[in-house]
Amino acid sequence: MTRTFARMTGLLAIISAIVSINIAHAKPTLKDYGSLPEIQLIAISPSSDLVAFRKVTAESDRVSVISISSHNQLATIDVKAIQPGALFFLNEEQLVLIASEYKKLEGIIDSFNVSTAFLYNLNDKSIRQLLIPGEEPVARGQMGLGRLIGISPDGKYAYMPAYSFATALGPDVSLKFDNADYSLLKVNLKEKKAPSIVTKGSRSAYDFFVDDNGNVLAQLSYDQKTNIHRVRARKNNEWVDIFKEKIDIPEKSFVGVTPDFKSLVVLDTNEKTGRVAYYTLSLADGKLSEPLFGRDDADIEGAIKSFQRVVYGVRYSGFSPSYQFFDPKLNERMKNIATQFPEQSVYLVDFSEDWKNIVVHVEGSNSPSEYYLFSEGKKPQFLTSSRPQIKPEDLHPIGKVTFTASDGLKIPTLLTIPKDKVSAMKNLPTIIMPHGGPESHDTIGFDYEAQAFADNGYLVIQPQFRGSDGFGLKHIQAGYGEWGKKMQDDITDAVNFAVKKGITDPNRVCIVGSSYGGYAALAGGAFSPDLYKCVVAIAGVSELKSFLSWSKMQRGSKSSAVSYWKRQFANGTIDNAALEAVSPVNFAQNFKAPVLLIHGTRDQTVPIEQSERMNSALKSAKKPVTFIELDKENHYLQESETRLKTLEESITFVNKHIGPQ
Length: 661
Hints:
Elements: H1 11-19, H2 30-34, E1 39-44, E2 50-56, E3 61-67, E4 73-78, E5 84-89, E6 94-104, E7 111-121, E8 126-129, E9 144-145, E10 150-151, E11 157-164, E12 181-188, E13 196-202, E14 205-210, E15 216-222, E16 228-235, E17 238-246, E18 253-257, E19 263-270, E20 275-282, E21 300-305, E22 311-316, E23 322-325, H3 328-339, E24 344-351, E25 357-364, E26 367-375, E27 381-385, E28 398-404, E29 410-416, E30 428-432, H4 448-455, E31 459-463, H5 473-477, H6 486-500, E32 504-514, H7 516-527, E33 534-538, H8 544-555, H9 560-569, H10 576-581, E34 595-600, H11 609-620, E35 625-630, H12 640-658
Parallel strand pairs: 7-9, 30-31, 30-32, 32-33, 33-34, 34-35
Antiparallel strand pairs: 1-2, 2-3, 3-4, 5-6, 6-7, 7-8, 10-11, 11-12, 12-13, 14-15, 15-16, 16-17, 18-19, 19-20, 21-22, 22-23, 24-25, 25-26, 26-27, 28-29, 29-31
Helix pairs in contact: 8-9
């Protein structure tokens, strides 16, 4: 694609200097693929004069703030200790960083990733944590303290939910997490003072909504013991139920409020189309509307909203996102932006208060993760690339194909093709890469693993097997109870499809996956031993029964999380024998392909014991296996060093067994 965007003027010149973009260009190295993106976050202030972004290198991790009008860098914040995952401006003086710290919590033996919100003041360069566990009235021992759901009209206070106590009960028990209520707190943004409780919630509460004046509109709760999902509205200083249902796994997502603050925005499946659609729930009488937005060929996967959760439109699922807004002009504008990046994924990152300025993030065959600024009445500006060492010409193209599984189900699939093989796609060494989740889906974008494997000469196939989301409810439901069975058959069928088409060499196929994909990789080695020449499982489940027991211990036996896994594993009553029959750890003797296991020691999603058990089973069966523990890494490979190590070990392992000839 020929770019006509203004590149090296104004704002870009400053960002370019800060991120050290080099004019000379060499072929990307494995480090360029495996390192975390250099630019990870971009936010603009309400007036659009200020831009904040996070820059990550091996030496530092910083958030910078620059002014568009003055072309000056206003702040540099060292964030290596807190690793922010989100940025947004409250106003022209205050920047919020939503961060995650791995730390011990008072009164708890284990350490956890603790989410917190930090407020940075551009005037005096100060930074402080807004809510601190154990500081009254915030209960100690909780992890999620990074949510701001509203701001007072004068900008002096933020509204933040947290487990808390109304009164102190003594030095040893006053702020203990056990039996605390999830309440809405009012936090002073101008000076450090103890928060006050605006609305006392309950142990089962999980969210609140407020209007633009700071008035509490609704309280949401889900009781893990009774499975009651409830919405209460505030009327005449009392809580009144406006929605209530008993359900093992809540299906309705309350994601925001309408601009008039009279209704909550609800995402739920439209039974007629089998697709997630947009509804509203009246705060006055609890009436649920007919679907207001929705398509029969895509799910709504998210709402476009302000940080105070006023909803302006929706984003649809698919290999590339698409959008729909209430405002026809905004709708047309976003369509025009997307048309400038054909066959790419265009993500709306941030927008000014008046929507005159929009920042988008673009990924795909022509874009290695780039940011652009679209300002009303001005030419679009290329801002920066997340990966300045990788240029558009380095990218390996991404193609789409749909094949028919053995039972007739259509399986959408992505192919990442080595660029020098596009015109000669025949008998290529191939990586089958099932995604995690499993209720997730791959998208057209910069997949660092797929691009790195393609750069080493491999065709990468990513089938959206049954159980994947984004392709309708029926596609999701078709995966219930099919772990190691029809879900695995879809992955096998993807290999057979590629072999039949002549693009894959059947003697040079490896399966590589993370999380659920790690399970699928191990299941491939256990249940299709002749299909693969090597297996790489990163943070994979190997034993379903013990994983379910661990989930019960972590979340409670009646929790919605446990109900979710029961539905995934059995779609009904759990049968331990059936779980054992699809657990790769019990079939180590079947493996013919060598196995590489990789797992983070701090994984709180799939415990490292799952890989330890698989390693022991394979060793006992005298099968070739390598087990690599990633010290201080979690489930999502958020450290550059361990992410790069994982990629290097995976490619070295695959090269050894099916390396391009």
